[in-house]
Amino acid sequence: MPESIFYPANYIVMAEAEPDLSTFENKTGLAEDMKFLASMPELCDVTFLVGDTREPVCAVKAVLAARSRVFHKMLYQAPSPQRKKEPQPRENKLRLFLKRSSEPLLNLQNASQQRSGFTQQLTPIQEPTSQQHQTLIIEEFEPDVFRQLIEYIHTGCVTLQPRTLLGVMNAADYYGLDELRRACAGFVQCCINVDTVCALLASAERYIQYKCTKSLVQKVLEFVDEHGNEVLNLGSFTLLPQHVVRLILARDELQADEFTKFQAALMWGKKYCDNNPNPNLKEVIANFLEYIQFHKIPANVLMREVHPLGLVPYHIIMNALAYQADPASVDPGKLSPNRMRRQSQGRSMSVQSSLDPYGSRTTLSSSGSSELASSDGKHSSN
Question: Other C-beta atoms within 10 Å of 76: how many?
């Protein structure tokens, strides 16, 4: 997988006007020292518990605040809860008289203790709240992504990888690190290839609610369309969520033959059955059959490779064979009912969030097939 190491501008400045002066910069050594600093919890003053696993990521608050206004507001400008002033109890006249009469005596005693200085002990001064160690929870990003972000903030350097690229780009945008966001966007242009496309799609599912993701998803899907047969044969294709697989197979622009699409669905179904208890392979495969045009698969392949598996209903095989013998004998709607429905309704890639009004369960979907969006990946058979 391609990687890119992003450094900000680093210059060695020579004072041309005064040749006996020079400015020496050792930013690489500084970056290594700052990386060591962030790796030592005892030297840090804030710990982030990141993701569902609450993995700890340590940092220095002053460095975060200096590099990101979002972190500065989070760590130093959080509004303190305002407490309601409790009404002071009313004191009766006798108590007020006793209090006033005792004040001169108390003042004399305090003055004598201050002059002596021997019996008075120094009390420890409490640290300001801003100097105490803080622990914060970060649920928006994965631990690997957030750790890379913290490393960049401390050192000015980060290694961009396809697996975490989308998360880092959205995190940089979220925390106002525009220089890092632009570097990620630039790396995207040369990052999309057959080896990385599935990893990018998987990470897009995690961060689809962020604005930086949507343009990248469209570019990735366009790449999938152009290299359909190659992508469908990848082992990493089986790791995609079920509704993303359905979205890919349903695309009219996908340049892949129908038998390859069936094999990809079969490969995904077997992988799913291996990873889940008591699954039914036939029911799993049924979720993809409507996106495969079996009448475009040669008759000998249908009878030798597809029919013996017992996964495709008999009437689908017969309709495909009948169409190949006489196209006028079979209603086209029975061959590809889902394709006919999409053509009548129109189709476009969209972002759908039907389960959670706050958008936390947003998924990739297609407007021509609303059942594609499912946060748990479970679909009923058609």
Answer: 12
